[in-house]
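Exercise 7. Predict the structure of Winged helix-turn-helix domain-containing protein from Bacteroides graminisolvens DSM 19988 = JCM 15093.
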Amino acid sequence: MLKEKAGETAGKIWNALNESEGLTAKQLKKATKLVDKDLYLGLGWLLREDKISTSEVDGELFAKLK
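Solution. The predicted structure, encoded as tokens:
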């Protein structure tokens, strides 16, 4: 069940990132309406699948599609 949730969450994040040049964690939360734990679950999935790259911008997590 958690694996399915992680995949669905990753899909929401991927879709949000696909419509932009990259987003901060705060922007992703707003765009996807996810809570922190679900956001980071999805980001972890996408990182593991090597679909996104992350960096730190002004002290905040920034993610973009590869």
